[in-house]
Structure formats: structure tokens, C-alpha cells
Amino acid sequence: MASFAWANLNPTNYIGGASFRPEQDIPDLSGKVVLVTGGNAGLGKETIRQILKHSPQKVFLAARSEEKAANAIAELKSSTPDASITWLPLDLSSTKSVQNAAEKFKSEASRLDILILNAGVMSLPPGETDLGHEIQLGTNHTGHFLLTKLLLPTLLRTAEEEPNSDVRIISLSSVGHNLAPSFDTILDQSKLKKCNTHARYGASKAANILFAAELARRYPSLTAVSLHPGLIATDLYGPIGKQNPIAAVGAKVLGAVGTQVEQGAWNQLWAAVGAKRGELVNGAYYVPVGNLKTYNRYANSEEMGKALWEWTEAELRRGGAKL
């Protein structure tokens, strides 16, 4: 955990970058369709809140719980009553749920301009998805991979056929990628499941970076980047504090010094809708705000990116998914 703490607190991670304020730097989004996973709470809900201020055509809030999604939508619409927000039922640990979500989206929208892969789990006890993937990798990576693959025809059509389009896919990673085990272990689920929860989380965050970079290589008409949102005081860190007294103290310190959710969403907002076209380096990894990490080994490794992509496709096909 020492490397994770240092990666979070290391000031060199946050020197430089872009000046960004959502109110003034997000342009008019009229006609744009946006999908945010994990949009019912935390960074996802705050991201939607800021996007709605700029008049998108429609926003899809993807989340597991209908009740939590309904509460979030009611809260969001209280400040933007004319906004068009639709709940998209989505459980990223379920292949069937992801497929159903993609079908529902495609039945209700003919374009997709912004896809923000925001949802995630952290520091969970041992578990697995319906594919048999370790629960954190399966939720944070495999589920998002499948969703993106199923929405690729819509994303590509928007990018290549809609006038003045600027299609972006934003993959939320974390400096937690520093906790990842070897790449071979990431691809070997029996080995990965034997790792501690922090290494398993790191594996999923490394995969988020690898996926965005490989997506950019394979589909250059799309802009795909990954990012670290910052040291954010959100509920995501709750499970850490339950594991041991030292971690509990760390979680309390995070609550005291961490960036609050409102500002914590700035990096993904900048990447998704704030940065001007051409400012983003396709496939790159960013820390707050808009700070390009040129030498990230996962963003730069074509070999690992290709291997993860092909492994994930094979795993999904093995599980019966139609890609």
C-alpha cells in the first residue's frame, strides 16, 4: 500500500496540466448524446450534473439499482428540470445485463458522442463475475470492454457520419495501477484470485489504461483516453477502512485531505467535454487536470494492449457473448 499512497500524494503527479472550470470551459452540448456508467453517485453523478448545464440532447445514467438511479435523476432534474435523463439498467459483473443495456441504448438513441466509463469497485473481498473473472477486473474492465464493443457501431457511425462530430470514450483508471501484479498474472484468473485485494484492484486499473490505449489504436476515428481522477473523498474507499485499523485511519485522512467530489470530477469532465478537439493525445493517460503522463507503461505498450484485447474477446466469446 505504500506505493499506492505515494503515487496518490506525490506532488509531481499534479504539477502542470490544464486550467479548467466546468461552467466556463464546457461548450454548448446541444445535439450530443452522453452515457455515463455509475452515474447514480459520486463522480458519475457530479459529471452528469455539470454536463446537464450545457444542454446535451440526452444523457443515459447507467446504474444497477433502479431506486438509486431514480433518486439521482430526481436530484439532477431539480436543478435542470428540462434535462432528458434516462436510467440504463447496468450490472457490469453480468454479461447478460451488459448486453441488455447495450440493446436498450441502441433502441432509444441513434448516436453516441460521449461514453464515460466511470463505474467501478474497489478493495472487494474475493469474488467473481458470471464469466469467472476476478470481481474487480471483471467489473471494472471486462464489463466496460463488452459495453464499449457492443456500442462500437453507434460510436463509429457518429464519428464518421455525423457532421462536426467529436466522439470520445473516457476510461476511469487510477494511480492504483501501480499496485498491479505482473501482466501474466492479470491474464491468469487463477493466479489473480490468489492476490490480495489491492493487487487485484491494481490489475483492473492497469487494464483500464491498456483498454483505452488499444481502443485508440484500433479505431482512430474515435478519441479514447484513460485518467486518474485524483485523490477523491468518495464512498469507493469505504471497504478499505473496514479491513484493518491502519487502513481505517488512512480512510479518515483521505476524507480530511482528499479533493471533494465536485472538483474530483474535473479531470474526466475536461477529457470528455472540456478539452478542445485535438488537445487530447489519443490513447493517453492523464492525471488531474489534463496532465499528460507521457511515459505510462500501460498506455505505451502495444504488446500488452493487444494481448489484453484479444484475451478479453476470447473470454467473452467463451462465455457466450456475441461481439
UniProtKB/TrEMBL annotation:
The keyword NADP applies. It comes from the Eukaryota. InterPro entries: NAD(P)-bd_dom_sf, SDR_fam. Pfam families: adh_short. Keywords: NADP, Oxidoreductase. Transmembrane segments: none annotated. Belongs to the short-chain dehydrogenases/reductases (SDR) family. This is Short-chain dehydrogenase/reductase family protein. It comes from Aspergillus lucknowensis. The lineage of its organism: Eukaryota, Fungi, Dikarya, Ascomycota, Pezizomycotina.
